[in-house]
Amino acid sequence: MPSRRRTLLKVIILGDSGVGKTSLMNQYVNKKFSNQYKATIGADFLTKEVQFEDRLFTLQIWDTAGQERFQSLGVAFYRGADCCVLVYDVNSMKSFDNLNNWREEFLIQASPSDPENFPFVVIGNKIDIDGGNSRVVSEKKARAWCASKGNIPYFETSAKEGLNVEEAFQCIAKNALKSGEEEELYLPDTIDVGNSSQPRATGCEC
Amino acid sequence: MDEEYDVIVLGTGLKECILSGLLSVDGLKVLHMDRNDYYGGASTSLNLTQLWKRFRGDDTPSENLGSSREYNVDMIPKFMMANGALVRVLIHTDVTKYLNFKAVDGSFVYNKGKIYKVPATDVEALKSPLMGLFEKRRARKFFIYVQDYETNDPKSHEGLDLNQVTARQLISKYGLEDDTVDFIGHALALHRDDSYLDEPAKDFVDRVKIYAESLARFQGGSPYIYPLYGLGELPQAFARLSAVYGGTYMLNKPECKVEFDDNGKAIGVTSEGETAKCKKVVCDPSYLSDKVQKVGKVARAICIMSHPIPDTNDSHSAQVILPQKQLGRKSDMYLFCCSYAHNVAAKGKYIAFVTTEAETDQPEVELKPGIDLLGPVDEIFYDIYDRFEPCNDHEADGCFISTSYDATTHFETTVKDVVELYSKITGKVLDLSVDLSAASAATEE
């Protein structure tokens, strides 16, 4: 049995209110979906153990907790992200148009050391609505935008139906790991103030 | 906006964000607004560009200082006592999961023109030149008394009612010299002036106990801890707590105007032509300036340096206390230093602060004794800000205004204000005493 080194990787999920960011997280980590929409309440960050090749690492997926609704995310939210997920609703042109704003906001706030190569993943969510008839953003248009921004990987999902969610997050995890490896962060020796470990949603798949 | 809330909070200072978090967890519907486009209000941490804009009026910092975002310069410099009230709040709310802390390297005191380390261990205490040998024996007896003192155990009181006996009387009982009293009162109990001597000794003893317990907590070189990326992380962490429990956040809302009904009761807040209704308003003094009164001024200097404070054993983070008597002032002066080791400056850079309760209108002259101890400085910014206290009747107007941050070295008074405001707003008492022992119990597992 090869030894396993644990790594913590931070993933943040950005996008307009109501595009399904929290539902995507919950579907991926907890295999749950809620039809009850409230501008995100109770979502914080979720963790999931993921194995990649012979290594085990912890994906820490950060929701915006609703603070994106009025553009009120603080710089602390962005800091140290290893991968940034941009989510839009395929039934909302406005949410797709705002992807550019979210990407630029991320680059400003997070100030990655290599902005040209920082890993993004784009998700077009809610492909299930009305059997796809209310769709207003074509896949072609979305892929063109992703290509123009440095070949950002692109996925179309339904958090409700669970379609393509696993595939999207596998890609996210892979890119976060690659980013986390390359970044030799200066990690000072911190102290444990509360000794309150965050209970993890163990979803290790071996 | 154009909605109805239980509470609208104005200003995202640390006090306001803690309150927002607590109230949201309690299930209240909270709207939190700030005129700035960043969190923290008066207690924020600024990057280099923001610092230059605020103090120099332009946004072009010197290029040799490194990138702007590597800097997180605290506007209200303080360290957290490792066993203090703010740590209890962090544990109580589980906000520690958003933050990382490091122990502060050292705590020092200025005495007769020199800087001395405040002893962190018995061995250091024995070696310290701050006291002579016989004085050390007397001081040791005093410290044993303090250590053994328990409020609920009359035997440990040794016949003294600390709610009656003054600090001066207690000190006299142990025959301590003036220099020792100065040291204990200012470097351990962290009093800013000498008025404590004529007050009941209980508070004095409690403070020395907190200091000792904080020293023991992480066994670092000082009783303090400090968050990576600076104190501006704290309001953001509590704001996130509020958001997770349903709080709504709106930064960059100019001219937040509190609306009142015919009886002078707050009924909402208007910004950019929209009004949100509420039952209560919580804010920092700057949002309701006609309901606060000026109670003092704080003078401070913010310095960027390329070296630690001299004579602090190359500490990457340190506090130096200059007791009032040493300087011939009414209040103590404090030096703080943090650095790239805490991710608040570019590699090789240090941020130092000199701060005190202002006694003149000339910070450059007034702060000189502290600044002279810093050695060469790359950049320096001076500032004086007023401190305010609320003078309104919150039961009549539904406004709950926090007090400005003082020049103390820590957050004990900050949390005290928060706890009092919480009680006024909710009618409930915030009990923070159990959590720390629970956390300690968890540590022992």
TrEMBL record, chain A:
Cellular localization per UniProt: Cell membrane
Source superkingdom: Eukaryota
GO biological process, one term: protein transport
Membrane-topology descriptor: Lipid-anchor
GO CC terms of this entry: plasma membrane; vacuolar membrane
Keyword 4Fe-4S carried by entry: no
Main location: membrane
GO molecular function, one term: GTP binding
PROSITE patterns, A to Z: RAB, RAS, RHO
SUPFAM superfamilies: P-loop containing nucleoside triphosphate hydrolases
Pfam families in the cross-refs: Ras
Main function: Protein transport. Probably involved in vesicular traffic.
Family to which this protein belongs: Belongs to the small GTPase superfamily. Rab family.
Record's protein name: Ras-related protein Rab7
UniProtKB/TrEMBL annotation, chain B:
UniProt keywords, alphabetically: GTPase activation
UniProt keyword DNA damage, yes or no: no
GO cellular component annotations of the record: apoplast; cytoplasm
Domain of life (superkingdom): Eukaryota
Record GO terms (molecular function): GTPase activator activity; Rab GDP-dissociation inhibitor activity
InterPro entries given in the database record: FAD/NAD-bd_sf (IPR036188), GDP_dissociation_inhibitor (IPR018203), RabGDI (IPR000806)
Pfam families recorded: GDI
Keyword Nucleotide-binding annotated: no
A biological-process GO annotation: protein transport
PANTHER family documented for this protein: GUANOSINE NUCLEOTIDE DIPHOSPHATE DISSOCIATION INHIBITOR, RAB GDP-DISSOCIATION INHIBITOR
Role played: Regulates the GDP/GTP exchange reaction of most RAB proteins by inhibiting the dissociation of GDP from them, and the subsequent binding of GTP.
Family: Belongs to the Rab GDI family.
Name by which UniProt lists this protein: Guanosine nucleotide diphosphate dissociation inhibitor
Taxonomic classification: Eukaryota, Viridiplantae, Streptophyta, Embryophyta, Tracheophyta
